[in-house]
């Protein structure tokens, strides 16, 4: 689920937090980094479980309506299309997902069902829901396509859900788009009579190793890495460069020199995009100029030791 850019962002934020706190315990900050990455998976499970809880709340509502004193004909014979949605049923009956939620003690919606009730209200007022409930059709494909659209257009961008997630864990703000994209992709790929494939946090062990390595190698070599670019900024004293920019430069240079399997172009593109999103408006231009200058210098001095074709 995690991509390399998100891993780089988390490493950058951990280094920044280390600077701000004034603590120099590498082990402690490394644990903080790995914990922040694990929190992404918790968010994934929390949002996924919201789909299960939405169905439960609607089932409860239908049952209460049917048993109320002055129940109408519609109350007694409600439209069950939403609660019978094949994908929602699949998620609700997924033993592996249930076990994951239990093992990680994820019970957010049982303790905060008001958010789910408000979200359900918004869903039932949407045209997507109304059109689906009145379509008169029944197929797995329709159920899946409905849920994909509902998730993408109503659930994922819902302000009430976003506010709850932000209040519960502030660090999730950066992770919500990544997790929502992953869940939407998984829903689109679902096929009839197939299990829901629950994502893993890391694509492979190399990604987890990269997270620790880029953090450690940058922190342990900060003074040396700074020397690589400080004389390339004659009009700027190091104190005047935005702190995030110096961290981004150090991480990028670290990748140039200490990660032989990562192409130079990939490193530059990744950190420029991170600078655009997290630093000042002019940071990406500033950083690009320095990195471009350094790459040419390293190539002339044979300092770039990259393995594999096309890595320069």
TrEMBL record:
Keywords: RNA-binding, Transcription, Transcription antitermination, Transcription regulation
GO molecular function ontology, one term from the record: RNA binding
NusB/RsmB/TIM44 domain location: 194-296
Gene3D superfamilies: NusB-like
Signal peptide start and end residues: none
Gene Ontology terms describing biological process: DNA-templated transcription termination; transcription antitermination
PANTHER family on file: ANTITERMINATION NUSB DOMAIN-CONTAINING PROTEIN, N UTILIZATION SUBSTANCE PROTEIN B-RELATED
Protein family: Belongs to the NusB family.
Organism, as annotated: Flavobacterium croceum DSM 17960
Coiled-coil portions: none
Name of the protein in its database record: NusB antitermination factor
Domain of life assignment: Bacteria
